[in-house]
């Protein structure tokens, strides 16, 4: 795998596309095609709209049938539980860490994907252990002197849209042969 660092920008013209996340996940799927060996560690809390990005992704992945998701809205994986969550992962598992982050104003809405561990809590000055073999950080708001406040006042609708893109991209990358994509499912007629 040669992915060192990629930034996927979300612009108005790209809003309906996957922002490059599908290709990022597909490269991981080539290395680990077995969905049961993929562990998503979705870091964050349901008590802050910006920091809910990880648990929202986790909830959407679980709803899509992913068997191994740590961190959902019902059971968040936050600063207090992230080390314990890592202890439950096997050596043969491929871990994809997902978390919110703050960035430059022009980067808001983009995704930072890397083939390295994620450093959770960095935006708010926390020192937590690195998580994952691969990582996706969603830039949910701009950084500044009051990082915690920025996460608290981030638009929930915006974060939900970003979370939906990540979950849909993961599903598409590991799509079973013959399965229909989200786009195809949306076009199906609804029986009356």
Folded structure, characterized:
The protein has a single domain, classed as HybD-like (Rossmann fold, 3-Layer(aba) Sandwich), CATH 3.40.50.1450. The chain is 30% helix and 17% strand. Helix 1 crosses helix 5 and helix 2 crosses helix 5. The chain starts with 5 loop residues before the first strand and ends in a 5-residue tail after the last helix. The N terminus is likely disordered. This is Sporulation protein YyaC.
Please supply descriptive tags for the structure shown above:
single chain; 192 residues; alpha/beta; Rossmann fold; 6-stranded mixed beta sheet; 6 helices; 6 strands; 30% helix; 17% strand
Q: In percent, how much strand structure appears in the residues?
A: 15-25%
Assign a percent range to the helix content. Answer: 25-40%
CATH superfamily: HybD-like
CATH architectural name: 3-Layer(aba) Sandwich
Number of helices: 6
Structural class: alpha/beta
Described by strand count, sense and barrel closure, the largest sheet is: 6 strands, mixed
Instruction: Sketch the topology as an H/E string, one letter per element.
Output: EHEHEHEEEHHH
The gross shape turns out to be globular
CATH C-level label = Alpha Beta
Number of strands: 6
What is this entry, summarized?
The chain is of the alpha/beta class.
Could you outline the blueprint of secondary structure elements for this entry?
Elements: E1 6-8, H1 21-31, E2 38-42, H2 53-63, E3 69-70, H3 82-87, E4 94-103, E5 111-114, E6 134-142, H4 147-152, H5 156-173, H6 182-187
Parallel strand pairs: 2-3, 2-4, 4-6
Antiparallel strand pairs: 1-5, 5-6
């Amino acid at each position: 795998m040669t992915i060192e660092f990629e930034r996927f920008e979300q612009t108005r013209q790209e809003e309906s596309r996957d922002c490059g996340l599908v290709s990022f996940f597909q490269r991981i799927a080539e290395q680990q095609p077995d969905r049961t060996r993929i562990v998503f560690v979705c870091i964050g809390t349901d008590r802050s709209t910006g920091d809910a990005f990880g648990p929202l992704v986790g909830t959407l992945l679980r709803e899509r049938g992913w068997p191994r998701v740590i961190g959902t809205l019902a059971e968040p994986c936050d600063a207090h539980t992230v080390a314990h969550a890592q202890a439950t992962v096997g050596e043969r598992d491929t871990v994809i860490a997902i978390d919110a982050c703050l960035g430059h104003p022009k980067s808001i809405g983009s995704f930072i994907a890397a083939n390295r561990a994620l450093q959770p809590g960095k935006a708010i000055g926390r020192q937590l252990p690195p998580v994952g073999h691969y990582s996706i950080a969603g830039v949910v708001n701009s950084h500044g002197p009051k990082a915690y406040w920025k996460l608290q006042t981030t638009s929930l609708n915006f974060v939900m849209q970003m979370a939906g893109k990540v979950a849909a991209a993961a599903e598409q990358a590991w799509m079973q042969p013959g399965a229909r994509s989200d786009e195809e499912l949306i076009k199906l007629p609804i029986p009356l």
